[in-house]
Fold each of these.
Amino acid sequence: MEKHEIRRKIKALRTMLSEAEKIAAADQVFSRLEQTAAFLMADRILMYHSLPDELSTHAFLRKWGNKKHFFLPRVNGVNLDILPYNESRLELGSFHIEEPTGEDFADPEEIELIVVPAVAYDNTGNRLGRGKGFYDRLLSTTKATKIGVGYDFQLVESIPAEEHDIPVDIVITQTSMIVVK
């Protein structure tokens, strides 16, 4: 399947989820994430602030916000800046995503774990994003463990990967955890 076909199929499946299904899925996925050595050992974690059609990170950020140092990305041209997460310092930014405000940027090399959003993943860690390449550019600058999270239906058989695409190390869905590296 080509990238645009995968995006279309996943988008359709996401729209069919009820709020209860979305909440239950996020609870299951993030419960699995909490049990990984990568999460338990990491202190400086880059998350994403979820859009309505993504696996919600909001409850997870609130739950762990006082125990771990979370960071969120902010779009800066074609790149992502990394800033500390503070729920009271978010404002609507690029692509209608709530982004952190301020100028206290973090160095990607200081991040120990990155929880990566995507439209889809495959069993080899390839990820399909929204097509702008923001995360691929960021992921190429860090040695942090990269964990992709999503709904079960976001795990597909194969994603066509290009040279610039950066795979994740682990993929977690409601019912599976695939360790690639």
Amino acid sequence: MAAKSNLTNMVLCLTAVCLVCAALLGVIYTVTYEPIRDAAAKALVESIGKVLPEGGSLSEEMTGENDGVAFIYYKSSDASGNVAAYAVKSKVVGFGGPLTIMVGVLPDGTVYNTSVLECSETPGLGAKCSTDEAFMAQWRGFKGNLKVRKDGGDIDAITASTITSRAYTLAVANAVSFVSSINTEDNE
């Protein structure tokens, strides 16, 4: 004989399903938390290595603010203890969502290199900001007008991805401005 359908049976059944689903989500979260955290830490270390000159020592993670925007950054020092470069984590909103990059900036404001940490852009279009060699190469040793050419700057945008290119350029410009503010504070 089948159970009679009534409100009590439906509530009990739905509660049981919710408890099982919640338990499964909890187990999956617990199992995947460490590997995800370790992969993110490894990606961060790799991106710092890509954007800073080789050699020297790296500081611990530091935080700072410029024009109301918070930044996480690292200082790379040479053997004499002088700052050789900064690795600045810069986050902006692109076409598809958050775009987080690591920007290596020399004390004189030259962009040493960039590396994408997080990208929610459209695959095959804006996501090329992390794979398009021509786009990425233009940042190495860049010192110029930090705007895309369409806006009167020196940056070649990714074809069909002007919004992403503008966002990426803004993230770099924010990092350079932040380093400039750090240098101003350090020299006062």
